[in-house]
Every structure is written in structure tokens, then in C-alpha cells.
Amino acid sequence: MLETHPAAARLKLEPDGRWTIHAPAKINLGLRVFPPRPDGFHDLETWMVPLYWHDTISYQDGPDLSLTLSGRTEGIPPEPDKNLVGRAALRLAERAGIAPRGTLTLHKVLPPGGGLGGGSSDAANVLVLLNRAWELELDAHDLLAIAEALGSDVPFFVHGRSALCRGRGEVMTPLRVCRPLFAVLILPPEGLATGPVFKVFDEGRRHPDRPPTDWCAWAGLDARALNHAIVNDLEPAAFHIAPWLETLRDDAAAAIGQPVHMTGSGSTLFTLTGSAPHAADLSARLGTALGSRATCVPVRILRQR
Ligand code: C5P
Known about the structure:
The protein is an alpha+beta fold. 35% of the residues lie in helices and 26% in strands. The chain contains eleven helices and eleven strands. The strands form two sheets. Strands 1, 2, 3, 4, 5, 6 and 7 form a seven-stranded mixed sheet that branches. Strands 9-10-8-11 form a four-stranded antiparallel sheet. It is globular and about 55 Å long. Bound molecules: cytidine-5'-monophosphate (C5P). Cytidine-5'-monophosphate is lined by residues 41-42, 44, 151-153, 168-169, 194-195, 198.
């Protein structure tokens, strides 16, 4: 049941009667992509981990459903039927057979279009929040079915913990983060749309055959070894669309003398380390080397007990 899921554990009832939940970002510690399926989607394998970096959603009960946006809202349509948060609320109400109600507030911190899953996380966490606030008691299976229809990464955030994701991303097996892991995110000002990256992958922009990934072995590696092992099959396609991203990756790796990877379909890049002070140091060095070409953010990768 969802009560035992970390996503539900992030849900809080404030003294003023508002419900709040954090919607964390994720990165992909490796991404393997297989040929397209008859439905056009791609089966994939990826180790997704949530980060200590999040949007915040709150809910106050009231008669009609409304959505208020604050923070980094550029590019997010404010109408509830046009963005993922509102669509998640409407789908949930429809599934439960109730009229949608109350005021949702989304405080946006995570950048859009970066492969960090911010929109998907917002949608998933709204499902978890409203399931409780509206006293629906839908089980995880029901919430995951709604999540899947909203986007490939949404089920991961309903589940809310480090997992090996297969299928379109919705078939999840818990894969624990065993070692302390910190990432430095390298955020270019420009995002990349997911669909076109997969399309260019289909046109043959991919690495020549690489051996299958032994994900369980990866989970036991320390940050340094893992950082050397990571492969993202979408990099050649993303770099074909955005050659500047490959240059940024190469310059970032040269500045710190360690590998730098793309998360998801880009455009965010990251590198791993095993300690907070080293992450801060790498972030400062990358900031100096890259200047206005990217914003660098050191973050901790969430570990479950
Ligand atoms: O499901 P989501 O909205 O994240 O997917 C965006 C686009 O990315 C899809 O329309 C599809 O072109 C591509 N995609 C894919 N295979 C996946 C996930 C996404 O082809 N497993």
C-alpha cells in the first residue's frame, strides 16, 4: 500500500489544514534503450534515483479546483487542464467519480525540459497528495495506472524510491543506493524535447552494440567506479540535435578530470562523487570553467534505509 511508500511519507498535514508534499527531481544512473515497439515507445532499462532537490505542492480544501503557480513558472500553462499537475488532479477525480475541488499551489524550483523529471514528479505527487486529501483510498495499483497514462516517468515518482525501471519506465524493481552518492548537476539554459531525441535514436544515432548492463553490480559500486561505468544510450542522438551539449560535456569533463553524463534525454548533465565537500568543490570548479554556459548545483542522492 502507498502508506509505506516514501512518496506518501513526504506528505504532511500542516497546522493550518493545508496538505504539502515535496516533488523531488531524479537522475538516470545509466540508460539503455532498445528498438522501438509497435506502439512507437521504446523498451528501456534505467536506474532512476530521486534527489534532495524538489518542487513543493500544497493543497487547501475548497469548492472548485484551482491551480496557483509560484517560483520558476516560465513555460508552465496556468490552466488546470493544460499542465501535468492539473491533468493529474482531473484524471484522479474522474477515476474516483468525484468532482475535483480545492486549491493546489505548485512552487516550482526544478527547471523544465532538463531530463530531471520535474513535471512528472509534480504529477505523481499530486496523485499521492489528493488521494489522501480527498480521502479516496485508491491503492498503489490504481494510482500507478493513472500515472502511466500521464507519462513514462510518472509511475517512478508515485513509487518514489531508487529503482531499476524497465518497459516504458513503468516496470519497477527496487534497486537500493548502497553507497553515499552526490551528483553535481550541470544545467544548460536550453532544454531538449524527449520525442525528437528518441526519433533521432531510431534514425541510427546510437552507440555501436555495447554489452548489457549488470545493474545489480552497479548498485554495489562506489561513486567513482559507478561514474566511470555509466552509459546513456540517448547521448549520440541528443548530441546530434544539440552539438553544443557534447562540447559542454567534454569541457566539463576536462575541467574536473572525471566523466560527465547526460540524464534521461537531456539536456542536464551530471557527474558523481561520494562526499558533500567534494561535490561542492566540483560544482565551484565547474562553475568557474563553464561560466554562463550552465548553472551548477551540487545535490545529494536520496538513500532509503
Ligand atoms: O511518456 P513521455 O511523455 O515521457 O514520452 C515523451 C516521448 O518520448 C514519447 O512521445 C515518445 O516519443 C518518447 N518515449 C519513447 N519511449 C519511452 C519513453 C518516451 O519513445 N520509453
